[in-house]
Task: structure prediction
Amino acid sequence: MCSFAQRPLSLKELIRQLSVPPAERHIFRRLIKQMSISGEIVKIKGHKYGLPTQMSLIVGRLQVHRDGFGFLIPEEKGKPEIYVNSRHLKQALDGDKVVVRMESSHRGEKTSGRVIRVLERAHQQIVGRYERGYRFDYVIPWHPNLTQDIFIPPQSHNAKPGQLVVAEITQYPTINRNPEGKIIEVLGSPDDIGIDEKIIIRHYNLCEEFPEQVLNESKQISEDISDTEINQRTDLRGLRLFTIDGKTARDFDDAVSIEKLAGNKLKLGVHIADVSHYVKEGSALDKEALQRGNSVYFPDRAIPMLPHSLSCGICSLNPHVDRLAVSLFIEFDEAGNLLNYKLTNSVIRSSYRFTYDLVKRILQDECSQDELPAAELIQDLKVMHNLADQLKKKRIKRGSMDFDLPEPEVIMDIDGVTQGIIKRERNQAHELIEEFMLMANEVAAGYLTKAKIPMLYRIHEEPDEVKLREFLEYLTYLGYKIKPKTNINQHELQEILNKVKDNPLKQLIALVMLRALKLAKYSVLNIGHFALAAPCYTHFTSPIRRYPDLVIHRLLKQVKSKTTPSYNEAEILLEKLSETARHCSLTERVAENAERDIMKIKRVKFMHAKVGEEFEGIISRVTSFGLFVELTDFYLEGLIHVSSMTDDYYQYNDKEQSLIGKRTKRKFCLGERLKVRVDNVNIERRLIDFALLGKAT
Result:
């Protein structure tokens, strides 16, 4: 069509132009229909088909703002986002795959367009609050980006006004009508214990329970390891190794060991649970793990990728029990340079279960005598700490970026009520494990790349120049003079992070920089990992909670057994891995969004009890409608709306990113510390309003 179609063509014209034989025309018709559904070609009036690019049409996913307008995120790489006015959304909802016709892209204006067709619906079911109206009932969607209420025709259900429900959409919206639906599940009242998790699970369509077939298959897996299996592996049960994880962790993917060799060399052992031994490709367990893609973690629970009997049982590297593992031994010289490595299928027995906190206190000599483990374990930790420090310095030197962003942690009581929000600690113990896992992932990627077989890479593309320029402009508002340039590399971005390390907004700056970068994802094409400055990278170290790691384990075993796929087998494998990469990148985004939203709910509910209380915060964003302030105590953001600043008329200065009083010339800029009062908390919209009390001293 690209080469000969000068205009949109009917199906008959396409058949004639392409000389499709009569016997294959039913297949051709099906292919054209599939291409039309996917958006590769577009069906227009007169039952004719054309190429989107030839008709100023763009295919992508729609992101709708809570205020009604939207943006199209094009599927084609390099295409800019397209603004869609609320009047031009037609019958599309947030997340839908749509075709947009570009209408204007004047200099200085946003590229804009209108939705002309919905190709794929993102929502079949919607979570929301049920209410009764005078003439009809309706459900107000829980997610603010779903801006249209769902009409509920008369039906039999048990929902009461104000309860949260799941509504199945029976009719999607038109230009003049809201969507219609029916209530299929009542979740409960907004104050019920566990309701937050129910909302998130239903909204993101997460698989909470395992199918019976999967559970039956997992029950058939024996806890015992046969002598035959042990004899086929490297027996490392005499090797001193241990796990280091969080206090509440229940599934242990990895254990580590260290050995001193002659000539001041070190041999690091990274031992990963051999999940692939138990989860066979094509089994019910495997299909369910692939569908989930990864585990999802909430503050007080997890939705695992594998059933409990595997994730916390036979696959988990629990202390003092025999476990099957894939062990990677990496040798380093005294300067931390990698010399060689060896991969082996093993049987191990972890001798100790360390927590991050205990390791930190051991390394800082803050432990009491009764807390200390055996002396040789302490010595191992100190040697590991020095090695990890060497590896980190080398990684940073080559250009790997270190954002060091704090993560909030929700403290909850036994009833699931938020009691506090604290900064999740990241100490030397976290860095130690992080460095070893990064190194193991790189080594595994290099091993498979040398084998020249299709594989799954973890890639991070170079950032978009437009977004980087916007980030540099943001820095100028904060007073940093950084010359705009093209092809900014990792070293220069890391230098910026070093420059702002004493700025009270350093965490916000790092977050804005992170948003300017692209998202990491899985791919069968190796283009390197920009943020890590790694030419070759994959995920190998967490097969209990990430499906791509399980795939990598299978590929490693295939190479190790010297069963190289034939050309046809390699082609089939490449196609299969490509689909796995696409699917797992998608499930990873879903998990991240679900985890982010549950944290947002918990934080907003926590602040609901703080209405009227006073806090200090930092101006994190300045807009024409007010100041966003981040509370230093709770790692959350609220808005001082300009309408509540009644001492003057405030005008927005775009160049300075500030609000300036027309009469008093009082100025509010990014990074300033303020005293605020919590004025209002809207749990449903997850919004917090502050009242300005003055500038903090």
The longest helix spans residues 567-608. The chain has four domains: 125-192, 212-461+523-599, 465-517, 610-695. The mean pLDDT is 90.
